[in-house]
Write a structure and sequence with these properties.
The protein is mostly helical. Helices cover 93% and strands 0% of the residues. It is built from two helices and no strands. 0% of the residues are buried.
């Protein structure tokens, strides 16, 4: 034991220097580890913030899309009502057109009958010698 004490007292400066050197290495390693952990936490926090910002942005876009869908649905409902009114008007118009066609057909038939009566009367008048012309 005495030899160790003598060796330490002879090499005191070297022992203290070695202890300081080892302390600096350990301190440097602890500082490096703490700094690296802090950077990792900082990077993780920034990533979380970016993700939260992305989620907020997506939420706003989703809300905008929902508003557009609601607007489109209102437009479709309005178009559906308009289409229903157009169908109803077209049905009414078709009934009127059919009725008018019927009247026109009956009037054509009557006109044909009247023309036949006039031709028969003219033929009868020519046969009798009756003047059909009112001008002498």
């Amino acid at each position: 034991m005495e030899q160790i004490k003598n060796w330490i007292s002879d090499h005191y400066v070297m022992c203290v220097s070695a202890i300081i050197f080892i302390g600096c290495i350990i301190g440097g390693w602890l500082y490096y580890t703490a700094s690296r952990t802090e950077n990792d936490y900082n990077n993780a926090n920034q990533s979380v913030e970016r993700v939260e910002a992305g989620i907020d942005s997506a939420g706003k876009r989703l809300e905008s899309a929902q508003n557009q869908i609601e607007d489109a649905q209102r437009e479709l409902d309005r178009a559906d009502k308009t289409t229903g009114r157009i169908k109803q008007t077209a049905g009414t118009n078709k009934k009127l057109i059919d009725e008018c066609t019927g009247i026109t057909d009956r009037m054509s038939e009557r006109a044909g009958n009247i023309q036949a009566i006039i031709r028969n009367a003219e033929t009868a008048n020519q046969a009798d010698g009756t003047q059909t012309n009112c001008n002498p």
